[in-house]
Amino acid sequence: MSIQVIEREEMKVVGISWNGTYSQISTLPSLFKEMLNRLEEVSYQTNEPVLIAPFHSRETEFTYYVTTPVEKIEEIPEGMVGFTIPSKNYVSATHYGSHAEVEHTYQQIYSWMKEYGYEQDHNALSIEVYKEEHKHHNANGELHFDIYLPVKTYKE
What we know:
By secondary structure, the protein is α+β, with helices and mostly antiparallel strands. 20% of the residues lie in helices and 40% in strands. It is globular, with a radius of gyration of 15 Å.
């Protein structure tokens, strides 16, 4: 697995949000279906064929969003949210594999961060990016998506 540090530009997104415990993680695929069914409701979408899934992890629960990138945040559809993800440095990797293997991919990234002296910025959103070109694989449970974990500045 290739792991690197990159800077992502500011991004505006509109989509649906969900909050729950880690034991409810099986709910997430239905969020993607709901968002895909409602995409046409979102105004000012960019031409980028992706779904952006920002999330906040906490000790006992997490908040997960399934969104689409937009040029500007106006006319947010009922039941959706819109917000700006600031420009930030991230440790980035790509997950290829099943739902069951996602946790292992994250553990590999965390180990790499520790080895190279990076500290996760727990106040910032982590991001998963699901590209249109991998939609068929993802729908069949063979996931292919990019992971971006926000980091504080490099520790000496």
